[in-house]
Design brief:
Elements: H1 3-17, H2 30-40, H3 45-58, H4 62-67, H5 70-77, H6 83-101, H7 109-112, H8 120-129, H9 140-149, H10 158-168, H11 174-187, H12 206-211
Length: 220
């Protein structure tokens, strides 16, 4: 199957099986999503969602967080992975938003990347979810699923995957496609043991055709 055809058919299939695809992080504002995404690094969304309600009651806006001590912040996120590093990132993020951006979350990647705790993946999540920009956040799920499906071929790093996906996908569905890929990777196309017997994409999947050669002729 030609790659352009694979993209077209996978977009059509995802639209059918996952018409609504959104982040599973709970948030009510750009500030809250930024906090949640920083906390979600190498941690499950489920765990983050357990922690953030109390966190946001204590620090309802970026100004309150900027005034807090690291000791105070740590107490609310100590059950999250890497709490020491994330405490410093959250404190630094809040101070920068207050001092440099008038308390607002920036809407462009250059400014977002200046913020402590914000890498390219986090920045792209903010751009796509909050500002509905055609930004593709590539985490381990997106990286893995893109390669298995055949949307990418031997990508060396997340940036290569991001560039390929944003070049090939229609701009108006890039933000949604991020959620398709991450949710598919989280619940079906798992890292160690993909649930191929439950997957609705096997007829379009390059990995499946290679690992199940007896079914290769089914890939149209």
């Amino acid at each position: 199957m030609r790659q352009q055809e694979r993209y077209r058919r996978l977009v059509e299939r995802f639209e059918q099986i996952m018409p609504v695809a959104e982040t599973e992080l709970h948030f009510d504002s750009p500030y809250q999503l930024l906090v949640a995404v920083i906390l979600s690094a190498q941690c499950t969304d489920k765990r983050v969602n357990m922690v953030t309600p109390e966190f946001f009651r204590a620090f309802p806006d970026v100004y309150k967080l900027a005034e807090a001590t690291e000791v105070e912040i740590f107490e609310y996120i100590k059950s999250i992975s890497y709490p020491n590093n994330k405490t410093r990132s959250l404190k630094g993020m809040a101070r920068m938003l207050v001092d440099k951006f008038n308390g607002e979350v920036p809407d462009n990647i250059d400014d977002l990347l200046l913020i402590p705790g914000v890498g390219r993946k986090t920045a792209n999540v903010i751009l796509s979810v909050i500002f509905n920009k055609p930004a593709m956040a590539v985490d381990t799920h997106v990286f893995r699923v893109s390669e298995r499906l055949g949307l990418t071929t031997r990508s060396k790093n997340p940036l290569q995957t991001e560039r390929k996906l944003t070049a090939e996908l229609p701009k108006d569905i890039i933000a949604k496609a991020h959620h398709w890929l991450i949710l598919h990777g989280r619940y079906v196309c798992k890292a160690r043991k993909p649930l191929c017997d439950q997957c609705p994409l096997t007829d379009l999947c390059r990995h499946y055709s290679k690992t199940h050669p007896e079914n290769k002729d089914k890939e149209q």
